[in-house]
Amino acid sequence: MTDSDARQTRGPGAGPGTGSGVASGAGPQGEVRRVARVVLLDADDRILLMHGYEPDHPEQTWWFTPGGGLEGDETRQEAALRELAEETGITEIDLGPVLWTRYCSFPFDGRRWDQDEWYYLARTRRTEAAPRPQALTELENRSLAGLRWWTSAELSAARETVYPTRLAELLRTLLDEGPPRAPVVLAPEIV
């Protein structure tokens, strides 16, 4: 698959449990898609989340972290930076360590997506009032409703669906204790 083929098949990552950047489903012969996600915090410790929905059922919504599938020979770090820039327009960040990893599998846009996700910590000193996507695919345009900065308290009180499902608890631990010494393996999420 060429880089341009990968770019065209890359979805929004807006499917349940994905967060952003859902690429070409399970991949050839059931391969698990490798994904880099970003836990982006601003100077006030707010986290940036994306609001997505099922393209054919816009009433089915959820919030998730920016990120998506690796393209070509890029590393997960490179994918994290590229996806963040494409999906939010934010490029001035300090990319930190991998916080968490998880496997997830979910239906989205008529397909099953199987993903191995790595969540990177990132910090920005520049908080855009309204970050704006810069380079979305057709599927992302059909399944993203916007972006929002959340405080830990707002996320803990949210009644809306958020992926990963323990994000409020994970964020609170991160803010209280700092990054873990080694990435924490989260329980798989199968929807």
Describe this structure in words.
The chain is an alpha/beta fold and 191 residues long. It is built from 5 helices and 10 strands, in the order αββββαββαβαβαββ. Strands 1, 4, 5, 6, 9 and 10 form a 6-stranded mixed sheet that branches. Strands 7-2-3-8 form a 4-stranded mixed sheet. Strand 2 and strand 3 form a beta hairpin. The radius of gyration is 15 Å and the shape is globular. 40% of the residues are buried.
- Which spans have pLDDT < 50 for at least 5 consecutive residues? 1-29
**Mean pLDDT over all positions:** 81
Strand content: 35-45%
Instruction: Please report the number of helical segments.
Output: 5
User: What proportion of the residues is helical, as a percent range?
Assistant: 10-25%
Distance between the termini: 28 Å
Sum up the overall morphology in one term: globular
Radius of gyration, whole Å:
15 Å
What is the H/E order? HEEEEHEEHEHEHEE
Structural category is alpha/beta
**What oligomeric assembly is this protein in?**
single chain
Give the tally of β-strands: 10
Q: How many strands, which pairing sense, and closed or not: the largest β-sheet?
A: 6 strands, mixed
